[in-house]
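// run 5 | inverse folding | seed 20
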């Protein structure tokens, strides 16, 4: 881990140092090249007055040094905004508005850097006569709109490849570090050494633009750009279309496809109610529109990427197939991962429950003996408490290890737990406990221990023997949903709490189990202040 932190710390320094080396190298080479051209021209008996007259419109500082320095600085700014600001938010999906703003800034910096470089940069070349003999020097500009567009696309692809390589490094860190720190160090050093040699090689090589548009490099950029395009589009398909496909019938999907086709033609004029079919159709239309626009804009434009025998329709088809296939592959892998995580979480919950009991079979038998003794001594309250505790133990041993249990079993356990907690409370203390639980009128099944942890948390943090306390518990049902609410007071801890370390299954485990067992079928809202704590769980149980 220390190695990764050091790499992250010195990454910016290395990139800036490489950029400085590149600028200095370019400036020196350009001065040497122009001096050599002037000397060669004079050597071919061209009058010096002619040579300097040809160079009269050329200012080396304004037309070479300034464009290079400004262009590199703006491109570095685009890299910094994307690498340190845009991608972390894009990866976390926490703030789409900031992602859009930072992404726009990145594109603007790349475009501004490339535009200013080509607009201000003047080229110096030999001037030949019909006999191909040097007769002087000429100054001209290579500024073209398509050249600027091509270079922006090229730098954007390089930026994407760099980010993919950096994230792959972190992937190796997560996977290999856990197994062998030594293996991770060897692999990371090899990867970083290769990237460093490549960066320094490009810095010392000279003109990056000339290197980008060499035949082999251009082909590599094209395939890299297609890969980035597919990765971006599959992420959209996976996040916004696949979840709707899961809940839609075949007829609804086909109907949404027809609507999406109409949307591509009349989208600006479409005004439909936001039904599930229309939402699915709009997202499919957006997905197809992204494929068309990105393919024509990047590969179909008259840029440096242009080459013969290329069919934009074929590229669109390849991008479509690649994006959809990868999205469905991710879905399949996610299902397998979800099943494994569900099994692990269930076993963890079961183990946590068993660990909370000290030799549960012995305690269960001992409770039966204590219950019989309490009845013989006419201690009905004690016997009732022992019986409820025994029922809770039986639930833990027999029901808690199942995938689904009837809701009335969970409610019964909940009642027993509340009654035992009531027995611990002195009636003279100002403590109010309200329970309003709607009994199910039919068989309803849910995963075990989904409701009780919230009640445990309420009794753990909501009861004080020094201050007025209250706990309100509500459970209601309709045809498809379960609504469970727990509202309790909060009090600062003033001393050692014997139950502080005994959190049962735990709220974190419940959150994970809800995400795994009821994905897109639950809502968990938690609000808290210094005085109260409120939990509202809505569960689709069908």
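// decoded
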């Amino acid at each position: 881990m220390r190695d990764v932190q050091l790499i992250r710390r010195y990454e910016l320094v290395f990139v800036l140092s490489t950029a400085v080396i590149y600028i200095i190298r370019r400036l020196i080479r350009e001065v040497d090249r122009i001096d050599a051209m002037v000397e060669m021209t004079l050597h071919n008996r061209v009058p010096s007055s002619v040579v300097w007259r040809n160079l009269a419109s050329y200012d080396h500082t304004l037309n070479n040094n300034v464009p290079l320095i400004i262009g590199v600085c703006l491109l570095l700014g685009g890299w910094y905004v994307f690498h340190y600001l845009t991608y972390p938010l894009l990866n976390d999906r926490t703030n789409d508005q900031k992602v859009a703003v930072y992404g726009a800034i990145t594109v603007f910096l790349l475009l501004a850097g490339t535009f200013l470089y080509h607009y201000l940069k003047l080229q110096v070349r030999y001037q030949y006569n019909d006999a191909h003999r040097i007769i002087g020097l000429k100054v001209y500009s290579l500024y073209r709109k398509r050249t600027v567009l091509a270079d922006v696309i090229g730098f954007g692809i390089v930026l994407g490849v760099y980010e993919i390589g950096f994230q792959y490094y972190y992937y190796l860190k997560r996977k290999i570090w856990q197994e062998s720190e030594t293996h991770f160090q060897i692999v990371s050093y090899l990867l970083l050494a290769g990237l460093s040699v490549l960066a320094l090689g490009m810095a010392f090589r000279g003109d990056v633009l000339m290197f980008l548009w060499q035949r082999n490099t251009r082909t590599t950029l094209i395939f890299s750009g297609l890969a980035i395009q597919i990765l971006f589009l599959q992420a959209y398909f996976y996040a916004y279309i696949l979840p709707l496909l899961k809940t839609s019938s075949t007829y609804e999907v086909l109907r949404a496809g027809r609507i999406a086709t109409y949307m591509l033609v009349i989208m600006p004029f479409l005004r439909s109610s936001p039904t599930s079919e229309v939402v699915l159709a709009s997202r499919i239309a957006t997905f197809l529109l992204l494929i068309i626009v990105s393919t024509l804009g990047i590969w179909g434009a008259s840029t440096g990427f242009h080459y013969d025998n290329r069919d934009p329709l074929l590229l669109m088809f390849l991008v479509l197939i690649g994006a959809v296939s990868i999205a469905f592959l991710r879905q399949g892998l996610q299902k397998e991962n979800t099943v494994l995580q569900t099994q692990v979480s269930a076993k963890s919950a079961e183990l946590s429950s068993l660990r909370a009991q000290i030799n549960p079979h012995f305690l269960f038998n001992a409770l039966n003996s204590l219950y019989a003794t309490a009845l013989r001594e006419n201690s009905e309250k004690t016997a009732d408490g022992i019986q409820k505790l025994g029922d809770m133990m039986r639930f833990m041993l027999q029901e808690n290890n199942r995938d689904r249990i009837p809701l009335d079993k969970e409610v019964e356990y909940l009642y027993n737990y509340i009654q035992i907690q009531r027995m611990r409370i002195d009636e003279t203390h100002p403590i109010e406990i309200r329970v309003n639980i709607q009994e199910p009128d039919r068989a309803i099944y849910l995963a075990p221990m989904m409701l009780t942890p919230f009640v445990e948390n309420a009794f753990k943090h909501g009861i004080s023997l020094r201050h007025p306390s209250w706990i309100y518990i509500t459970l209601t049902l309709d045809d498809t949903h379960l609504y469970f609410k727990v509202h309790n007071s909060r009090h600062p801890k003033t001393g050692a709490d014997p139950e502080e370390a005994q959190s049962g299954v735990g709220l974190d485990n419940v959150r994970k189990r809800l995400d795994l067992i009821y994905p897109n079928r639950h809502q968990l809202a938690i609000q808290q202040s210094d005085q109260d704590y409120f939990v509202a769980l809505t569960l689709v149980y069908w």
